[in-house]
SET domain-containing protein (Timema poppense), 673 residues
Amino acid sequence: MTVPEFDKLLKAIMEDVKVDAALSKFERLKTDNDRINFILSFPRFKHLKISEKRCEKCDKKCEKMKNSAEDTSKNHWEVLKYYNEAIKFAPSHSNYTPFLYASRSGVLYSLQFFSLALKDIARSLNYSLPIKTTINLQVMRGSCYFSMEKWCQAESTFLGVIDIIRSSSLNNVEKVKFTGEILPKLKYVKEKLHNKDKEQPKPNHDKSLRSIADFPSLYNGPNTNIPAASSALKCNWTPEKGRGLFANQDIKIGSVVIVEKPFAWTSSKEAMLDHCLHCCKYTIAPIPCPGCSSVCFCDEECREKAMNQYHIFECPILDHILESKDLSCMGLLVYRIIITANTQAITRSEMATVLHKTEANENNTSVESKLNFISESLSCDETEQSLNSIPVNFSSESYVSVYNQVTNTDRRTASDLLKRTVTACFLLRCLQSVVGDNKDEILVGSRLLTHLQSCACNAYQISEQIVPQGDIKNSKEAEIGGAVYPTVSLCNHSCSPNVVRHSKGRYCIVRAIRIIKKGEEILDNYGPHFLANTQSERQIQLQSQYFFKCHCEACSENWPTSNHLKITKSTYLCGNCSKCIGSSLTVFKKCPHCKKKLNSKGFDLVLQDLNKTYKEALTDLLQGNILQSLEIFLNYAENLERMYVFPNMPLVSCQQAISLCWSLLGNVRNMTN
Ligand SMILES: [Zn+2]
Ligand SMILES: [Zn+2]
Ligand SMILES: [Zn+2]
Ligand SMILES: [Zn+2]
């Protein structure tokens, strides 16, 4: 294995700064501009030219994968995997391409992914094909509609094939054979169409569509000032914590408080192989990038958007970023922030029409003209908006929201800043090599550096729930990428959060996991959680990554971690005044605070009943009844909030069950093979 270019460079610079007290000179620099200037003046950087480096297309690999796929002893899933690889590596003018799509459509048909099969059939039919292949594909198209019980489309497709067969140059024996295959199906379709009105609608047999597609809607509608957040929230500024989101009314458990599209995002290197680069969804039958073999897309629409908006700027140098562990996901994310800022500036300048006309395949020609706006997009006056103010018209799509994120520059060590500066300069040279233009390099470099700092505290993971063979109990969360969500970033941290984040596609959905009362702050969790980490572990982690001392409830009261909580008796709350009445119900006849009579028997009965329903719902969840179980969990959690002092194990377990439901309603990958 060769050492990645970036790693070599970083090592060399670290050696360079040891001489001539360069590090202490660097340490005294005040601004990101100065730091970029300083590093760019090193001879290593001054003349650094980044050559193209991408995972190239390869005829040989394509052919090898195709041959493996045609080895029929393998199962459908395995065959599909080989075709996916063959399609990914096929050079853009490969003669194999139409046949690869044709063959893959057959595999998808066998696996009952009919809509996906239809897409591959259409892709294949875009090319001129031998007549028999065309007929076979059209018959399969008809059969897909047939299996999906789309009788009208099935009929017109079958009738169309019969026409093709009739007017073809096939001999009569062949014509009879092909037509003979179609006629019984066509007859069945005609009967179905005839009896259509009398029949009940059937469930959908297409496996391609088997996911819950809808986004949940924001509780109480969107906020006028912060459109990605619920109108039940408002943004306030406090001297201790800066900006934060607060409830302006009581919020129930399960309420959706933020639904946000990222400003910029990227899949991790591994996820790029089988997740759409644009929408982040796991794809069973991906289509390739015309330029490289590192990434894939779920369909043409996502590919066109990705190409036009950002991938043309990264495709030629992508492997430089991916191959270095130190750069990888974060480096690419920061690179994308700059590209997105630029693309949006173009859009703002009504260049949208120009972008729209650019074909995905012309990816190499038009890059230069597209980056003209970069200086304007990065230095617009709006960026002067202060971090210390409450945002007005806070948009997830505006660069200002990202530019204003906390960088913690003053708290970083010189070597931390040095490493980030070298990274920024390397990314700058990558960008310059793609656009062939060095203008505004200090500005662009310093913005890259700013985001390399702010993303360390403001980037979130995009996740996916992996379910092995439908086994929900053993499903687990996996990270598939990283993203910048400006609105979500407004939430401050607590080791005992009252909201949880889940991914759906590349979107982030934030929901209340505790009752949030009017005036209370919306508190997210940045990683260290009281159930998993001790107070001192949490403080160390938060200090080193986020540079603050946590004063949350769990930290100030030193709550027990999960292991200790399991053996701790729960403490009850008075149903009337909500004050703590101890861990035994038999001690008091009256509440010591509000003097109201306590009905311990009634309390016990209610609890028993709730517990029983909860346990049944847990079993139900493992059978896949997500929505039904979720409703019961939410009700149980609301009740437990009123009955016990938090933290208590029953509510913690219930929250985990709720969170699992939300994961299963988000990005899910069913491991079928
Ligand atoms: Zn997609
Ligand atoms: Zn590419
Ligand atoms: Zn804390
Ligand atoms: Zn009371």
In short: Residues 264-460 form one domain.
